[in-house]
Design brief:
Blueprint: E1 13-20, E2 29-32, E3 45-51, E4 54-63, E5 66-76, E6 84-92, E7 95-102, E8 106-111, E9 116-117, E10 121-122, E11 127-133, E12 136-144, E13 149-153, E14 158-163, E15 173-178, E16 184-189, E17 194-198, H1 202-211, H2 218-222, E18 226-228, E19 233-235, E20 243-248, E21 253-258, E22 262-267, E23 276-282, E24 296-297, E25 303-307, E26 313-317, E27 326-328, E28 337-342, E29 348-353, E30 357-363
Parallel strand pairs: 14-18
Antiparallel strand pairs: 1-30, 2-3, 3-4, 4-5, 6-7, 7-8, 8-9, 8-10, 11-12, 12-13, 13-14, 15-16, 16-17, 17-19, 20-21, 21-22, 22-23, 24-25, 25-26, 26-27, 28-29, 29-30
């Protein structure tokens, strides 16, 4: 997993800020905006969190070598029983967007620039995770408790396809990711299965073109999601427990994690029945099986982080696997860290835990 033409200096992180959100409930969703902010220094970034029925947007800034975190926007869903599980950033043309989905099956689309809600994306089950294709920023994949994966044009608010059938997930889907070009989706679920789906079917391509027409056209109003019944790859042998975190590492390499703390970096080939496992690691915990603990990958794919039950965080240098991870601890972090997300340059990351605490970690080297 190392690269001969790329040097890497091991990152060491320190906790700079701790934010305790007023709800003090489990925060499952946290995401960093990967676009640089015009007129700001390269260490400045925006990040979003979601918990209960709230979405919060923060700005991290560095002035005269002193960092600060400021809450700049917050949104509260009118449904008090809503509980957001995930949030992600994307761009619609030049507008910065935050999307969040959860218990009620509605993905809220928020235009951060104009501070307004766009048309929501409605599902028939709880939305466990969402993901955007970084190379095609309006393409969004979502996964639901009703065993289904969906593909959307989020800007047009049009469902392009659903992925469900006899040779796929037979329980709720917990994790989803879409690759850079939006050509493949990977999903993991309660059934311990990992599936890879193609978005290049003729019916999906046609729906993508229809989405660009807009709602004034008859074809748009009459369009129906294309149904995909069979994944191009699926495996139930890599993991023995719930697969609660999956991410694309490259065009054909995927990282997956299960609730029993097994991590796999593996390569898939269309048509092959079994994955080519490049790296597999298992860590033991004192507590029982816990799912919905998600790992984070830096944009460069050099650093991976995962929270632990005791509030500490594992950080791997992926270029030097199988070297053991470094462990980050903080005296005020005693609850399970549910999720974390890296900045565009990998110099900082943010993490969230069970008690509504948000931790901002920055590289000592930066």
């Amino acid at each position: 997993m190392s690269s001969d033409d790329e040097t890497y200096e091991e990152e060491r992180f320190q906790c700079e800020h701790i934010i305790t959100e007023s709800h003090e409930k489990a925060t499952y969703g946290i995401s960093v905006c990967q676009q640089t902010i015009p007129g700001e220094n390269e260490e400045t970034f925006l990040f979003a969190t979601c918990a209960i029925n709230q979405i919060c947007i923060y700005k991290y800034d560095v002035v005269d070598k002193k960092s600060s975190v400021q809450l700049i926007q917050s949104y509260c869903d009118s449904d008090k029983k809503e509980y957001f599980y995930d949030c992600k950033w994307t761009m619609f043309e030049n507008n910065t967007i935050v999307a969040a989905g959860g218990l009620r099956g509605v993905v809220r689309i928020i235009d951060v620039v104009h501070k307004c809600h766009l048309k929501p994306l409605r599902h028939l089950g709880s939305v466990n995770q969402i993901a955007f294709a970084s190379g095609r920023s309006t393409l969004m994949a979502s996964c639901c408790s009703n065993y289904t994966v969906f593909l959307w044009d989020a800007e047009a608010a049009l469902c392009l396809a659903n992925f469900v059938g006899p040779d796929q997930h037979i329980q709720g889907v917990l994790a989803v990711d879409i690759n850079h070009e939006g050509t493949f989706i990977v999903s993991g679920g309660l059934d311990s299965t990992v599936c890879v789906w193609s978005t290049q079917e003729k019916g999906i391509i046609e729906n993508m073109a229809i989405a660009k027409l807009g709602p004034l056209f008859r074809e748009f109003r009459l369009s129906q999601p294309h149904h995909i019944f069979f994944p191009v790859f699926h495996s139930s042998t890599m993991h023995e427990h719930y697969v609660d975190s999956v991410k694309w590492f490259s065009d054909d390499i995927i990282v997956s994690k299960s609730a029993d703390h097994v991590y796999c970096i593996w390569k898939f080939n269309v048509g092959q029945k079994e994955p080519n496992i490049l790296f597999r690691w298992h860590r033991s915990e004192k507590s029982d099986i816990v799912f919905d603990v998600r790992f984070g990958l830096s944009v460069s794919r050099k650093v991976m982080g995962i929270g632990r039950l005791d509030g500490s965080i594992f950080i791997w240098n992926i270029t030097t696997l199988p070297i053991q991870p470094i462990v980050l601890t903080h005296r005020d972090s005693k609850s399970m860290v549910r999720n974390l997300a890296f900045t565009h340059n990998g110099h900082s990351f943010v993490a969230c835990n069970e008690n509504g605490q948000i931790f901002v970690w920055a590289s000592i080297l930066s």
